Amino acid sequence: MAVRVDLNISLDGFATTTDQTPENPFGEDWGRLTGAYAATRTFRERVLQDTSGGGTTGVDDDYARAYFAELGAEIMGAGMFGLHDHPDDPDWRGWWGDEPPFHVPVFVLTRTAPRPSIAMAGGTTFHFLAASPAEALERATDAAGGKDVRIGGGPTVVRDFLKAGLVDQLHVAIAPILLGRGIRLWDDLRGWESGYDVEVAGAESGTTHVTFRR
Amino acid sequence: MAVRVDLNISLDGFATTTDQTPENPFGEDWGRLTGAYAATRTFRERVLQDTSGGGTTGVDDDYARAYFAELGAEIMGAGMFGLHDHPDDPDWRGWWGDEPPFHVPVFVLTRTAPRPSIAMAGGTTFHFLAASPAEALERATDAAGGKDVRIGGGPTVVRDFLKAGLVDQLHVAIAPILLGRGIRLWDDLRGWESGYDVEVAGAESGTTHVTFRR
């Protein structure tokens, strides 16, 4: 059992994009940041339920498979679940549709009013917690049944867990683009890598996969 | 003939280190930032004049060989030559010893008092210019005799050339360390990669080599 992070970041270290508009709610940059991952066969099968056999099958797909393997629970921030955009909607169920791609218990960190858990199709249940990183991790570890716990994001939440020393494996997929603005993953983490082994792999897409493990 | 940049940066994008002391003038971090390059057989042969055959021979060494290949001239900032640390010393000849590892004309950008050129052993001649990036590049291109011109550093000078659209090939060797402070290479370069092809390679050392070419 390991506590894992998997994030897509730009070469200049940004894990969020800033060019969202009402007409283009994801923005152009999000597609560029996550495009190599979204192009993999594994993403198509696991997230898009597209079993036609399309998608890339190289280094990026190897990491996409690892992304989904052995996961027992996930922790995410309120922003990633969409609570910041839907603060007053008690019926908000996230933006992943009726069958979210997690298929495990997901713990959403929020300090706003308590919400009842939401069971979705496909095995995903969203639970809402006002808890410290360590407390949330204890809850998620119990729920994971011996499998891995992922800290899913956003980057500020990930950084809280990294700084608290709670992460066993950090995998970043670095897109070869310069976003210039957004939230930086790496801020205030000087020397964090101490005690970790590192493995790097370049993908055909131009994406670099860097993995720290302890 | 291409205008090239080769830089060592940390995973969080810093191209300089900050832990220099009088007792340790390079600091510990500089060794961590450049260690994989300094361990290569090519570095040992070309910079240390160590022909004993030691040093690494993998991916890092492939890039070290390319670093020295086809170079006709180099441009660097005053700080990289040491003029900021030796402003009043007319006899300062840089910190690379009697036979610097460049073996080509080197153009040092400085706005302080003009200095005569300095011819060193091994083919390196230092010239001092008060010039814009484009003007300096014109001088260096003339001197390079059809070979490549490198913008050697520091990162602020490199960024000036990148922003001016003067660089054909940018190679960064990314060390898997988080320095947390220093001068960032990537600041204010949003979208710079447009129009470039990119190639990435992971080295055994944990270094990632990212190369943009147009």
Automatic annotation (TrEMBL), chains A, B:
This is Dihydrofolate reductase family protein. InterPro entries: DHFR-like_dom_sf, RibDG_C, Riboflavin_Biosynth_HTPR. Residues 3-188 form the Bacterial bifunctional deaminase-reductase C-terminal domain. It holds the Pfam family RibD_C. The lineage of its organism: Bacteria, Bacillati, Actinomycetota, Actinomycetes, Propionibacteriales. It comes from Propioniciclava soli. Coiled coil: none annotated.
